[in-house]
């Protein structure tokens, strides 16, 4: 009887473990994750030319859903991956907005645009002013080898009908900034948007550039042209940003996350006024990295460090973290005031010629997936973001961004054993069936074993 009791307790334990599977995991095992691949509107690039456009109303999954993954890359008309040494992907971003039903979408310089009064930008949890860095997703040259998956049971909630203002509907915007570097005189200079290589003294709106502005977004705007090698000729190509989205239908068991994007150039300040304490942020997005001294170069100590601090209005649990840097970057980190590192993200540089492994380019950034509940940020906590670049040579227009996903709570734990009734209440149908099959299988195997091994003194012990 002792061994029989032991068998039953083992069987029940297996049954409860199988049946108490979190509902979000059941989504995966029941193949409820949906995947769809989309293409951006076509953009045409010739040697040295630039694409930097905003496309509104792009193809995107609809309904009340939970976003799990967003991956992207540049492809040609045949669907082939285009390497960075031919078309450099400076960045792509995807943002969410509400548009008034029936509003006209205008065409302007090849871009689909909206009247300001007809749309409402849906902000993420970031701090920058106006609509700066308010995207939901975004990467650059590192896009092919940077993990974007949000672990279960967390996800980005979108399409909630209770949040969409009356008379509006949800839509999505895509910005693609790509630079064709075939045949250019200086590939590195073109990707860093050096103003002298683009032969510009004004930005795309006709405003004069600062005398000390040597390179950056203001010099490689849409339709700009980087300097080609003398006599070089090349064909214009039709290209697309291919993006893959994974999601599940929204369910109350999914834990929503908020997006925070920190910019190392943010020169924020706190001040008081008649309404109380306020904070004002001013993000420049990009900055220059001056070359190091000859002494530092000789000592192999050419590291440029830039950092800034932030105060979080509300805290939560960190679920994911990743940095964004340009070529020359050697890593970023986010840490507390006491020096405790929350996430460190370092680049992977390619060493080949094929797409995803292009020599000299950042082809991936490492990511952080803390154990759920292990990294908690408190309301009003101060964090520090630090961006490091190798400055053995001068760099223009570099970035030092840090993305984190934060959840208000961690999943509710499922008790191991609260008796048959409580176990049943915590089951979903598929998990119940799996647990029942496991239980019946174990019992049947045990009974058969006992019948085969019966002796005069009783039943043989089962060695587990």
Task: Report what the structure shows.
- It is a single chain.
- The protein has helices spanning 2-19, 23-29, 187-191, 195-198, 294-298, 419-425, 429-452, and strands at 34-39, 43-45, 50-56, 65-76, 87-100, 105-108, 111-114, 119-121, 137-139, 154-158, 168-180, 237-249, 255-263, 269-273, 276-280, 286-289, 303-311, 316-324, 329-336, 341-345, 347-349, 362-365, 367-368, 376-377, 382-390, 395-399, 401-407, 454-455, 458-459.
- A hairpin with a 2-residue loop joins strand 6 and strand 7.
- By secondary structure, the chain is an alpha+beta fold.
- Helix 1 runs antiparallel to helix 7.
- Strands 1, 2, 4, 10, 12, 13, 18, 23, 24 and 27 form a 10-stranded mixed sheet that branches. Strands 3, 5, 8, 9 and 11 form a 5-stranded antiparallel sheet that branches. It has a 4-stranded antiparallel sheet with strand order 17-25-19-20, with no helix packed on it.
- The chain has 7 helices and 29 strands.
- Residues 7-30 and 414-464 have low confidence and may be disordered.
- Residues 1-26 form the signal peptide.
- The chain crosses the membrane at residues 430-449.
- Pfam families: SURNod19 (PF07712).
- InterPro entries: Stress_up-reg_Nod19.
- Keywords: Membrane, Signal, Transmembrane, Transmembrane helix.
The helicity comes to 10-25%
β-sheet strand percentage: 35-45%
Mean pLDDT: 83
Shape: globular
Largest sheet report:
10 strands, mixed
* Structural class computed from helices and strand pairing: alpha+beta
**Oligomerization status of the protein chains:** single chain
Keywords: Membrane, Signal, Transmembrane, Transmembrane helix
Pfam families: SURNod19
Protein name: Stress up-regulated Nod 19
InterPro entries: Stress_up-reg_Nod19 (IPR011692)
């Amino acid at each position: 009887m002792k061994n029989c009791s032991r068998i039953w307790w083992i069987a029940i334990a297996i049954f409860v473990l199988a049946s108490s599977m979190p509902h979000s995991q059941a989504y995966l095992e029941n193949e409820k994750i949906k995947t769809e691949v989309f293409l951006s509107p076509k953009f045409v690039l010739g040697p040295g030319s630039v694409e930097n456009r905003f496309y509104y109303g792009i193809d995107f999954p609809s309904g009340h859903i939970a976003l799990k993954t967003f991956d992207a890359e540049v492809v040609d008309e045949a669907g082939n991956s285009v390497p960075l040494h031919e078309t450099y992907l400076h960045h792509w971003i995807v943002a969410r907005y509400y548009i008034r039903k029936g509003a006209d979408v205008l065409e302007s310089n090849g871009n689909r645009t909206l009247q300001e009064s007809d749309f409402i930008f849906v902000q993420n949890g970031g701090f920058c002013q106006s609509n700066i860095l308010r995207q939901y997703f975004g990467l650059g040259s590192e896009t092919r080898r940077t993990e974007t998956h949000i672990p279960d049971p967390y996800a980005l909630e979108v399409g909630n009908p209770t949040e969409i203002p009356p008379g509006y509907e949800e839509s999505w915007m895509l910005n693609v900034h790509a630079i064709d570097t075939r045949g250019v005189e200086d590939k590195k200079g073109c990707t860093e948007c050096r103003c002298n290589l683009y032969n510009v003294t004004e930005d795309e709106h006709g405003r004069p550039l600062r005398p000390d502005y040597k390179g950056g977004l203001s010099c490689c705007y849409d339709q700009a042209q980087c300097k080609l090698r003398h006599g070089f000729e090349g064909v214009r190509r039709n290209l697309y940003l291919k993006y893959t989205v994974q999601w599940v239908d929204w369910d109350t068991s999914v834990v929503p996350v908020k997006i925070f994007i920190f910019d190392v150039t943010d020169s924020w300040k706190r001040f008081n006024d008649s309404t109380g304490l306020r904070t004002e942020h001013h993000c420049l997005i990009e900055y220059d990295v001056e070359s190091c001294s000859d002494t530092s170069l000789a000592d192999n100590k050419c590291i440029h460090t830039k950092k800034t601090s932030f105060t979080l209005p509300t805290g939560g649990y960190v679920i994911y973290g990743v940095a964004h840097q340009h070529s020359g970057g050697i890593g970023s980190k986010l840490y507390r005031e006491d020096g405790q590192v929350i996430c460190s993200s370092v680049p992977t540089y390619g060493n080949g010629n094929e797409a995803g492994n292009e020599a000299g380019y950042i082809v991936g950034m490492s990511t952080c997936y803390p154990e759920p509940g292990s990294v908690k940020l408190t309301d009003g906590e101060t964090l520090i973001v630090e961006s490091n670049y190798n400055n053995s040579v001068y760099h223009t227009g570099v970035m030092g961004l840090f993305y984190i996903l934060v959840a208000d709570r961690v999943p509710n734990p499922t008790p191991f054993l609260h008796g048959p009734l409580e176990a049943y209440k915590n089951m979903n149908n598929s998990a119940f069936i799996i647990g029942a099959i496991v239980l019946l299988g174990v019992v049947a195997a045990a009974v058969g074993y006992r019948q085969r091994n019966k002796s005069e003194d009783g039943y043989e012990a089962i060695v587990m």
